[in-house]
Amino acid sequence: xxxxxLGLEQLHEFISKDELLAYDKQIVSAYRKIxxxxxxxxxxxxxxxxxxxxTEEEMARIEAHAxxxxxxxxxxxxxxxxxxxxxxxxxxxxxxHHFAQLCGSENPHIIYAGQHISEDYTxxxxxxxxxxxxxxxxxxxxxxxxxxxxxxxxxxSHIEKKYGVEEARKRIxxxxxxxxxxxxxxxxxxxxASYVVPDDVGGRYSxxxxxxxxxxxxxxxxxxxxxxxxxKMEAMxxxxxxxxxxxxxxxxxxxxxxxxxxKTVEVMVNYEPRLFYFTEWFKQLYGESEGKENKGIxxxxxxxxxxxxxxxxxxxxxxxxxFETVISVDKPVNELRVPGAETDLDQLNYIAGKRLxxxxxxxxxxxxxxxxxxxxxxxxxSIPEISADTIGQLIYFFEMGCALSGYMLGVNPFxxxxxxAYKKNMFALLGKKGFEAQTEExxxxxxx
Length: 448
Known about the structure:
By secondary structure, this protein is of the alpha/beta class. The protein has 18 helices and 10 strands. The protein folds into 2 domains: 5-38 and 226-409, 3-Layer(aba) Sandwich (Rossmann fold), CATH 3.40.50.10490; 50-221, Glucose-6-phosphate isomerase like protein, domain 1 (Rossmann fold, 3-Layer(aba) Sandwich), CATH 3.40.50. The strands form 2 sheets. Strands 1-10-9-7-8 form a 5-stranded mixed sheet, with helices on both faces. The protein has a 5-stranded parallel sheet with strand order 3-2-4-5-6, with helices on both faces. Helix 4 packs across helix 10 and helix 12 (247-260) packs across helix 16. The chain is globular, with a radius of gyration of 23 Å. The model has no long low-confidence stretch (mean pLDDT 96).
């Protein structure tokens, strides 16, 4: 059963239902491009049927290997950047106790490297790994992406010195191309356990491949439930390739209608801290997919009620270029009530006895109404609870919504040509062979 619900009640004073329905033909056209593989980037559509195509053997291998890694690791390091780590981190942070390690969790602490080039962070990480038993996964199709390649070079040296080369090989997992690339070549020569990043799945759509599933399983999360949730959303989307009866299609149509009305920034809002990295994953998925040809909705994110005391002012009264997509969780895992107080100096006795979740939901409802009154359209995506199943549904919801949105916008949702610009400049400034002319030019620009 699909548990993800889309509410558009607070949108209709900005965009009418009839105006939204006018996008149905574009939705149908976008679906045809996806399922007939006739749109731009059609060679990167492997994610579309990924949940239903994962085999029992693949899941069992990942689960068994994850159990082995858990048994000898206090820490598991995920080396990757962009989609190579954000999907896994989104699920792990969402599904893990907020203070798991301080509470003595039996599962390894998942730590990330290669997502930046901070010398201090990497040094601090090495100091931690000196004291902890650990293993790691390095995730890269090519093995030459600068940030993870640097991190892996450093951590490979560290783990070999700590455990010896033979034991280190048993603690390193490579998730890479099936037949080519520097990392694949190294994995074969060193005998690392390895998994394949499918050729037809881009990084930001890869969370339901071993890229995400292995770290998620090492963290002790049930990957079968995650995949089951994604399968439900996949089946719905394939069955209903139009707006009627399809919340993904309504979401994509609403985004396009808002964009065409001048709303160029989408703010994802959550009221649960554990959803912070889910928002980060969303930002990468949509930013890298849509931001092309001087087009696209800028994806942003806030955590309420925290950010109501910082970004709330701008959202309420700043430039009217925003709309909000609220991720709402109906039921928390736990129950905690506000106690009464004899003196009531803080004037909170009027909510004494109420659950914190009720207070949080009233804050959510009040904020939505205030922002709508302030000229900010709102959509509400609700789930009954945070579970592996519902998060799997949300992952596929946003992946398909992104593909539909990209095609409706008229861009290729599966490439990222703009990412190469900074890399070329960085290579030149670092003196990489073959970039001599650019080195001279950029040095002159920097020196005035």
